[in-house]
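Hey,
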Amino acid sequence: MINSNQALFRYLNVRGAFQPQVLPNQQALTFISKETGIPQVWKWDATTTQIQQYSDLPDRVLSVHHSPSGKQTIVGIDEHGNEKQQLYILHENSLNAQELVVSKEHFHQFGGWSPDESKIAFTSNRRHPGYFDIFIIDLETKTEEVVYQVDGNCTPIAWTKDGEQLILSMPDTNIDQSYYILNLKKKELHKLFEGSALARYQSLQQSKNGEGGFLLTDLDQNTLGIHQFTFKGSSELQQLLLIDKWDIEEIKLSPDSSLLAFTINEGGFSRLGIYDVTKQTHHFIENVPNGVVDSLTWLNDNELCFGLKSPILPGDIWKFSLEESQIERITFIGEAKDVQHLWQQPELCTFSSFDGLEVPYFLYGKTDNAQPLVVYVHGGPEHQIRAEYNPVIQYLAANGFAVAAPNVRGSMGYGRTYVKLDDVRKRMDSVADLKWLAEDLVKTHGADPKRIGIMGRSYGGFMVLAALTHYADIWAAGVDIVGISHFKSFLENTGSWRRKLREFEYGSLKDDVDFFEEIAPLNHTDKIKVPLLIFHGRNDTRVPVSEAEQLATDLKEQGKQVELFIFEDEGHQTEKIENHIKMNTQIVQFMQEFL
């Protein structure tokens, strides 16, 4: 058992390598890592297997986009966690990035390189806080042009292969979107798959000939599957591969367009496979460590690279050779030899909730001998707890706590039906899942009913507050990180670009204020019986810091035990290691004291 703050620092200070992307024509790839303390770009060279720093920017790197030749790279960074991404350009073999698209009060989303590398596309909300217009900038003259105005949210996907059109994604609901084609000469927009029902579309890949490609969708299905499409002629999708019960969540087309690498999300674990486009057959790759695979990228037609994380692998880059059927770990940044022997693999369990719904959860540590228990609730709400390294969960488990991390109704990864089970006025059904989880852990795993704590981030913070106010007798302590205390004030104060989409999930200011008032934790603070710890970032553009301030003020006026920490240099995420240490040291000490 470890008990010191220094031990917690070792858990929190574990690095990792994420989001690999092949550098075209170089037999090399880049990835993001916090080796210098904040996320920066690093390069791995296949010929030397050496790693070197690729960017040195003043704040965290959010995105990386290499040009078709690999000689230039667009890097997106924000400022103090505010998520207002600005775009910089890096030239080959130079750490020094130059400002390219900078308007610090606004958001920018990269939209792809033109095939000849002379231009890039991006969207920005410069005209209106909630409208993301489409821009093109000439890289030689630095001249910007608004090519289309969009009175809503919009994310560019890529240029078409002929350089004449842009592919755009526009959200329809909190989980659904549609794809559009923008003709740059005519400034005309038309919808792909016109007339289709609401659906998720993602991971679009263009074929080498530019006539169409492949994508993932759950159109008329419960789960995401691989489909083929063409830009011209029929707008119908041809289904190639659908897995019963589970989503296929990412695809990547090989350089010669003959193979599709794909991942399946099986209850929070990934399965990696290869689909042969010509033969229309598929097989799965063996010996991939149990965990989460993402960021598929082809080094060449024979070698596939990807990021891999697991509860005992904080994140590194791996390579699979098709010819040799061999898998190889190519970075070891996630190693932590002084503490990794203490990390635990969780048990994947389920419990039956109040209405008979089977709800999955990961269980860390042992719950015998009436062990104290922490329930860890994810955000989103459409996110999913995955089989990934979490330093706080691992530290708590190593120090005598059991930790249960559930995917309550409304979580992604289990199909459309499951993710819609908590929409709008069904919101409190997911909170009830937490009550039934706690009772099941006492009954089936021997948890001490008097020593159950709960913690969560973002929407998970709301779940913590809702659980403490609506099922007050179950919990012994709570931790709310960037959480929502009242949906009405949250929707009024969040960015207007997010409000419309969040209303599909939570309900609207027009129709559901009575329900917001009914369930708001802020309206039921008199029911909170246990100590509460609150954290928030001053620069949070998703959940405004006012959500934390109004809650803490109310509880203090009642004489309740509450403590609020505000990080002046963070946003919705907590990125800086010193803030991680401060926050999680407080959380661990808090749980040790009250559980």
